[in-house]
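Key idea: predict the complex, not the pieces.
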Amino acid sequence: MKKLCVFPGDGIGPEVMAEGLAVLKTIEQVAGKQMFTTESALLGGSSYDVHGVPMTDQAMALAESSDAVLLGAVGGPKWDALPFAVRPERALLALRKNLGLFANIRPAMVYAPLIDASPLRRELVEGIDIMVLRELTGGIYFGEPRGVSMIDGVETGINTEIYTRPEIERAARMAFELARKRRNHVTSVDKANVLESTELWRKVVSEVHAKEFPDVTLVHMLVDNCAMQLIRWPKQFDVIVTTNLFGDILTDEASMITGSIGMLPSASLGGKVGMYEPIHGSAPDIAGKGLANPLATILSVAMMLKYSFDMPGEAALIDSAVEKVLTGGWRTADIFREGPGVTKVGTVEMGEKVRQAILNSTR
Ligand code: IPM
Ligand code: MG
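Result:
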């Protein structure tokens, strides 16, 4: 029996998580046995409201002692004015760091029935399948010194971008390995013309490539150019590997190319325990209304089955059920456009459609 640590989090987090867990139950039903036990804990603003901290030591211990972590979303305007140290986002960053999750992989792919939801023209987005590997435990997110203080009588805010050779090597290796299972192409994104931390990034990625992965095509790209190329001709990308901050920014951009940030899952890997979460936020404006798109969370469950539990068949079952539901015309509000054969549904109904599709495909 595998033990899952579940952090529904804030905003729409609990609603989408309920659907993700229900789909997992369906997978067990199909297998004819229980495979997972779950234990939930508060995280983010909801934890702050009860415990005065965004993550308790018990919550961290629960994550560390589990086989995988599922997370909904954290944050919201209610907690925006809190001091930095207790903001909901701190919980997320601490989890990533403490679990050693140095690689965040975020697929950006276009589902054929949703092509028209993309703001880009059909011919630009048709068939897009990009995998971004964002370095997750280093760079400017964690570098010291940091903080706001008075320096020579002037109020000064400081953050530090740091990358060490081992941090770059392990991210690069994972990216090349991913590429070998895909289209054998890696774009490494940096700002090597201005930032020394990424001058080293470029050098180390090149060395890992030459020594261990000469069969994979490697392209170096400056981050500003990459932001432009993602819109100009996104099909040139297979795997993108980049730093923590650049990856944060580029994955939001990449997600929008696909039409909806509500569709995209993510996996954070590299430690003993993998963590899986939708890449969207807590969407406080629609929280509690049953409107949120649960598909990114459902697809995150599929990523968990694939990457943490070596269950690629079950993961594919979920992936293809999601595709069938989209092909069947079912849409939550974020991906809905008026048209023949298209029906708007809420969070729970969307989850049900996926579960039905799983059961139908195994009958
Ligand atoms: C993400 C989010 C987080 C990040 C925030 C919520 C701290 O934007 O996962 O992309 O910046 O990493
Ligand atoms: Mg982000």
